[in-house]
Write a structure and sequence with these properties.
Blueprint: H1 2-57, E1 61-62, H2 64-72, E2 77-81, H3 85-90, E3 91-93, E4 97-98, E5 114-118, H4 125-137, E6 141-145, H5 149-154, E7 159-161, H6 168-171, E8 175-177, H7 179-188, E9 192-196, H8 200-205, E10 212-213, E11 231-235, H9 239-251, E12 258-260, H10 263-269
Parallel strand pairs: 1-6, 2-4, 2-5, 5-6, 8-12, 9-10, 9-11, 11-12
Antiparallel strand pairs: 3-7
Helix pairs in contact: 9-10
């Protein structure tokens, strides 16, 4: 009986030792396999990154200062922004066109025109490479703008924003005036001009006497129609649209415009003079 117990105990010891040996061997080879796998994975990532870096060396980048200098010389250039439309609407380089990446195949450039491609940090390098190859095949003259919108502004470039009502920076761009104060202020100032940024359709129905109409979405494109040296009073349909118009005028370097608080709706509530377009 005693011998049977001793034999059983020795068997357990041998089994435990054998299992420990197997565990040590598995740990040893497993550790080396894992280390090799990690090295291979890291090498693969490095190869991908290296390939991407090499691809980007083929791309031509142009600095904001160089673009601004060319604009100053009035060279034939076209600035296209390939970010999403939503990002473009929030803020973009003045006079740039929104050509999202998803619609780039439909884009065409005029002969002799230098195309400046404005990108964003969210656009992967592989996409830039594809655009580079696409434009090269079409024999466009082009370059990618170096840096972000912040670097563009730091170099002296201008951007235009949609007018964020929660932005202290945007809010600081406008001068508000209540409808009741407009008449007296207009008399004090030289050459007052009322700018209506509502749609042409509602403008024709009724507007402030003497106002000119440039819809909010057209302000950037038609800013040359706003006479310089005028004291501008700007309004939209409501307070928000009026505010957006004031912010955009400021971004377009048309400073000092007064935003009629509450817009045309508040003007009507005060029963102030209005007129309709007669043709």
């Amino acid at each position: 009986m005693q011998d049977a117990r001793e034999n059983k105990q020795q068997g357990r010891i041998l089994l435990t030792g054998f299992m420990l040996i197997i565990g040590v061997v598995a740990w040893y080879f497993g550790r080396h396999w894992y280390a090799n796998w990690r090295e291979e994975e890291a090498a693969g990532k490095a190869a991908i990154e290296a390939a991407t870096d090499v691809a980007l060396t083929e791309l031509r980048f142009i600095t904001p200062k160089e673009v601004l200098a060319r604009l100053e010389r009035e060279e034939n250039m076209l600035l296209i922004d390939i970010r999403q439309k939503e990002d473009f609407n929030l803020e973009h380089v003045v006079d740039s066109l929104s050509i999202p990446v998803t619609t780039i195949n439909s884009f065409s450039s005029l002969q002799g025109q230098l195309v400046i491609v404005i990108t964003g940090s969210e656009i992967p390098n592989e996409t830039l490479k594809v655009i580079h190859e696409f434009f090269t095949e079409r024999r466009y003259t082009f370059a990618f703008l170096e840096g972000t919108l912040n670097e563009w502004k730091a170099a002296g470039g201008t951007t235009i924003s949609t007018g964020d009502p929660t932005s202290i920076f945007d809010y600081s761009k406008v001068i508000f005036i209540s409808p009741d104060q407009v008449s007296a202020t207009a008399i004090e100032l030289s050459d007052p001009l009322f700018l209506d940024v509502r749609s042409e359709e509602v403008f024709k129905k009724e507007h402030i006497p003497g106002a000119i109409n440039i819809p909010l979405s057209d302000l950037e494109r038609r800013r040359a129609e706003i006479p310089r040296g005028k004291s501008v009073f700007i309004y939209g349909e409501n307070d928000y649209e009026s505010y957006q118009g004031g912010v955009r005028l400021f971004d377009l370097n048309l400073f000092g415009a007064r935003v009629i608080r509450g817009g045309f709706g508040a003007w009507k509530e005060k029963q102030l003079p209005t007129t309709t377009e007669t043709r």
